[in-house]
Structures are given as structure tokens and as C-alpha cells.
Design a protein that fits this description.
By secondary structure, this protein is mostly helical. The chain has a domain of about 60 residues. Helix content is about 95%, strand content about 0%. It is built from two helices and no strands. It is elongated.
Length: about 80
């Protein structure tokens, strides 16, 4: 009877060890995936900042005025359509 209990305790210990190793492997896999995605987000954020600065450097007062006129014209048209 003692040997059966000892064998069952050993089997339980082995099962726990295997389960723990599987969970750690899954956690490692997920952590690596999250780190990779975090890197992609950081790269995209840096690219967005770079493009924003580049766009600001290329803006001239004439372009800003033309853009404002286009937006105001569009907003007026949308307001007129909303009243119909």
C-alpha cells in the first residue's frame, strides 16, 4: 500500500512538473510575441512623429490658407445639406 501511495505521489509530482514547464513555455512564447508587437508599435510611433514633423516643415502659409478654404467650403456644403 505504501508503494502505491509513493508511486501516486511521484506521478503527481511529475505531472505538476510537466504542467509547470508547459505553462512557462507558453508564457515565454506569449512574452516574445508581445515584445515583437511592442517593437512594431514603437517603430510606427516613431515613423508617425517623423512624418508629422516632415509635413509641418513642408507647410507654407499659402497651402494652409488653401486647406482652410477647402475645409470651410466642405463644412458649408454639409451644413446646407443637413438643412434640406
Amino acid at each position: 500500500m505504501r508503494w502505491i501511495l509513493a508511486g501516486m505521489a511521484f506521478a503527481l509530482a511529475v505531472g505538476l512538473a510537466v504542467g509547470t514547464a508547459a505553462m512557462r513555455a507558453e508564457n515565454t512564447r506569449l512574452r516574445l510575441r508581445l515584445e515583437r508587437e511592442h517593437g512594431y508599435v514603437q517603430d510606427a510611433s516613431m515613423e508617425l512623429r517623423r512624418l508629422s514633423l516632415q509635413a509641418l516643415q513642408q507647410v507654407t502659409p499659402e497651402r494652409m490658407a488653401a486647406s482652410l478654404r477647402r475645409h470651410l467650403t466642405r463644412d458649408r456644403r454639409e451644413a446646407n445639406v443637413a438643412w434640406l
